[in-house]
Amino acid sequence: MHRTFDELVAEADAAPMAGWDFSWLEGRATEERPSWRYSRLLHDRLGTVDAALDLQTGGGEVLAAAPSLPPLLVATEGWPPNVAAASARLHPRGVAVVAHDDGAAVPLPFADAAFDLVTSRHPVVPRWAEIARVLRPGGTYLAQHVGPASVFELVEYFLGPQPEEGRRGRDPEDEVAAAREAGLELVDLRAERLRIEFHDVGAVVWFLRKVVWMVPGFTSDAYRGELRELDERIRADGPFVAHSARHLVELRR
């Protein structure tokens, strides 16, 4: 039996949010993956260095899956529930988890030239001067970033057309220019747009509860009318389609 609109929304509202695990969406939403397979690249690189730092690690899921880790590996995270989740996941493997709000104008709590490798998966704002400071000469920054206008089909469904400056935010060329100003040189840059399908309105509700910056202040009550219309649209026409933007960036100090 097909679930009603109210059942789908209530289920998504009650679902857990801890960590950075999107497995709740299995069977309800799909997203193409970048061709470069960031997790594999990261895991391979971790086995080649002595000291590494992972910024904004989320719940530590990506690091925890690595088959081998360097002798020194530190992860930072700013959201308290994720700090707890990452600590539980990574401490048994000898990884130190440091609570640090990387989005704030607060220096990283590490010495200059402390790491051979700095990594991050989907940082909110890369702080290039701090990344360059904690890297050793010849050290590498390897990361997968969210690109410009990512999932904006969904954002604009709820918020209407977005200004051009909002669409250009996170542009990879702009990021590389800022990184160069901080003393980093480009090694590799690749960008892709990837298809996302939301198969029911509950998947949309859960996604927007998880990725809170997409539609700031989102709740199912505040957007009840838009959600009901979206539910009718998905039932009549099939999945709601959006596109994520991702870029792989590798820089060297």
From TrEMBL:
Keyword Transferase: yes
Record GO terms (molecular function): S-adenosylmethionine-dependent methyltransferase activity
Domain of life: Bacteria
Pfam families in the record: Methyltransf_11 (PF08241)
The entry's keywords: Methyltransferase, Transferase
GO biological process, one term: methylation
Keyword Metal-binding among record annotations: no
Domain Methyltransferase type: 53-142
PANTHER family: METHYLTRANSFERASE (PTHR43460), METHYLTRANSFERASE TYPE 11 DOMAIN-CONTAINING PROTEIN (PTHR43460:SF1)
Protein name: Methyltransferase domain-containing protein
